[in-house]
Amino acid sequence: MSASLKQVGAGEGYVPPSDELTEPWWNATREHRFMLQHCGACDSVQHYPRHLCVGCGSSEHLSWVESHGRGVIDTFTVVHRAARPDLDVPYVVARIRLAEGPIVLSNIVDVSPDEVESGALVLLEWRDLADGRALPVFTIESEDAA
Amino acid sequence: MTSRSVAVVGAAECDLGVTNASVLELQTQAVTRALADAGLSLRDVDGFATNNVSRFSTTTMSDYFGIRPTWVDSSFVGGSAFESYVARGVQAIEAGQANVVVVSYASNQRSARSRSLGGVHEDHLPEAQFETPYGPLFPLSYYAMAAQAYLDRFGVTRAQLAEIAVSAREWALLNPKAFRYGSGPLTVDDVLGSTMISTPLTAGDCCLVTDGGGAVVLTSAARARELAQKPVLVLGYGESTGHSAMASCDDILDTGAARAANKAYATSGLTPGDIDVVEVYDSFTITAALSLEALGLCGPGEAVVMAADGLLRPGGSLPVNTSGGGLSYCHPGQFGILLLVEAVRQLRGECGPRQVPDAEIAVAHGTGGILSHHSTVLLGVDR
Questions:
Q1: What is the pLDDT of residues A59-76, one digit of tens each?
Q2: Which of A65, A98, B25, B181 is deepest in the core (most CB within 10 A)?
Q3: What is the pTM (predicted TM-score) of this model?
Q4: Chain B nearest C-alpha distance from A131 (Å)
Q5: Contact B160/B289 with Cβ under 8 angstroms?
Q6: What is the rounded CA–CA span in Å between residue B243 and residue B145?
């Protein structure tokens, strides 16, 4: 496992513990589920999790909904100088626009960095952490799977 | 409209490059040199703005200098803070809260080897859980993603983007204070062929990492006319604040810089066509390109075309970053103070071989964080 973790840039020990707000989010990752916050007052969907809805300011109507795990690469960069010693270069950092609307930062894995381009369709994938949580990453959606 | 009632009356750099000096020594150089330039002394200072000295930067420096200001500011928004300090310094003087405001900055980051590519992380912030695990260089990878989006959207090339760095070097070759003064010209191939850091940005697209800093002194225009230097009036200003996380901005190229610029134009009554000298933040080549476009000095996607046509270089129609910029002159972590120092010197006509002839209006436009904070100051000669 540690080898694949190195490839995606998710060295164990580098994901801080959850807090009172994000604990349900991280617990869902143990079942490989990517949760988003939904506001029942204004129907906004947001990520990262916050104590209020940035759509309407309400703190009273937020609940968790599961992402379908599909998105599009908004933009990306291939990193050639590691941010931390545990990371093997090159690795791909991308902004991914989920089908549900929010943009998330993640890695694009299991692909040659040369083949990554903006606009590509991507699918959710997981890298398990040593503590039982998992880190969401993305793969390029192959044409025959699309 | 801004009343044009406040002027910059002093401007100076501290030692630049590799100084082996402490932050306190460099701050002392910056402040005392700027005051000497103005013909004023620390005894006159009752307003003070700085950051990056300590957790309590303005009390630290007030104690160190033995001053007791009635107005201070140490907003920490990245390298654009200094343009905002000038704006708020103007407001403080107009409101009668201070008479002489000093805005200063200094860093010994190169001598101290205190800069890391990965950045500084705070575990209690959302980015630590949701972004940092993926290993983006901070801030570099955000600018890289913006650059990739820029190339994709406007169909321009890495070579055209590199021309921003080439142009900056041409100016630096005319500035003896520039870190790259003696380095000779830079070519597009040099930039494209240098070490790839975070695509599409190479080391040649990235600013220097040096020690350095500076200070400017503000006071009322009425008092300015009795002081040592030709006054440089603050004509207008504006700022805009946005995201801190890499995934929060819906359109990575819609940075908020145009909001800042448009407020500065509105408060000054000026338009982009009035500007003779342009000093914009060039932490990376893409930063300068986006800033020129946000300032309305060219259309979206056109800044790199202008650069490739040589228009931003010495003798070009749009003189940009006449010091050599963060790319080839000096970048001490926060560059905004040095944009102001160079703009003031150009308007005073002090710049020797790199002087823009008959410069009467200049813009200093800072960018902080990851395209997070933007602050524009328009300066002009006293007519």
A1: 999 999 999 999 999 999
A2: A98
A3: 0.96
A4: 14
A5: no
A6: 15
